[in-house]
Amino acid sequence: MKFRDLKDIHKGQISFLCGAGPSLHSTDMTLLKDHISIAVNSGVVKAKECDYFVSDDIAIKNWSYYTDLLPTLDCIKLLYKDKLEGNCSNLSNVVLFEHTWWYSPATKTYNMDGLKLNKTGPIIGARTSMGSAVHLAYIMGCNPIVLLGNDCCLKDGKRYFWQYDGEEKTHRVRGRSFSSKTQNLGFDRGAFEEYWNTFFEVNKDILGKEVDIIDGSDSALSCFPKMTVEKIIEKYKGF
To answer: Could you give the count of Cα atoms lying within 13 Å of 50 in the half-sphere of its Cβ?
Structure first.
């Protein structure tokens, strides 16, 4: 498959985007089985039956879910070319994508057009791989696009669903160990909220018209309508 083949491949179908936030711990994944599912980063540990995997993050090469789990899955792996092209030789079904930008730390400038959804790419600038997953689902024609595990906050002192008892664990295979003391390195709730609020403002002309983006997470966000997975399926089945 090539990137261009993604356009409207799942037009009008519900898609569930599974991030790794703590609320995914309480999500009934069996409800997703008849719908398009897209795992984002370590969300794949919970969503092994996913149709797609998405990441922008070079750091995933240091995690067991990328080195050990992902090579065993048949899903299509959608990866940011600049960061991951040289780190995916162990994977099958890889499709590489390119990014534009929306914020430059070097110059402290914003490019609002860099958050505008389009059907051809490049993928919008992303503070989080979930942003890329949303754009990719939009290109695929999915509607609605449902965000799961996109909490943008800690719960019970945890950053990820797999920190809860009873969940399958993942770990770093190289580099520093993950622990409660190191879990918040690089985590900035305010930056996530800014990103999604700005994304909403830039795309509000198409949201609710061309596509519905629904927050199925127990998240810190208020920019998207919130609904349970059960209600989403009930509302949109047969569309």
So the answer is: 29
Two tokens, residue 120: 């051809």
pLDDT tens by residue, 213-236:
999 999 999 999 999 999 999 999
Whether the upstream peptide bond of residue 225 has omega within 30° of 0, thus cis, is: no
Q: What is the 3-state secondary structure (H, E, C) of 49-116?
A: CCCEEEECCHHHHHEHHHHHHHHHCCCEEEEEHHHHHHHCCCCCCEEEECECCCEECCCCEECHHHHC
Choose among 86, 85, 120: nearest CA to 100.
Answer: 120
Residue 217, CB half-sphere, CA atoms under 13 Å: how many?
32
Pairing mode, strands 109-110 and 103-104: antiparallel
Residue position matching structure tokens 């998207």: 224
Task: Provide the Cα torsion 175, 176, 180, 186; round to 10°.
Answer: -70
Task: Specify the pLDDT at position 10.
Answer: 98
Mean pLDDT, range 2-28, rounded to an integer: 97
Tell me what the mean pLDDT of segment 57-75 comes to: 97
Say if residue 238's pLDDT is above 80: no
Cα end-to-end distance, the chain, whole Å = 27
Contact (Cβ atoms closer than 8 angstroms) between residue 155 and residue 23: yes
Burial 175-184 (b: 16+ CB within 10 A, else e): eeebeeeeee
Instruction: Say whether pLDDT at 95 is over 80.
Output: yes
Among 45-49, 127-131, 201-205, 235-239, the range scoring the smallest mean pLDDT is: 235-239
**If DSSP codes are grouped into helix, strand and coil, which group holds residue 140?**
coil
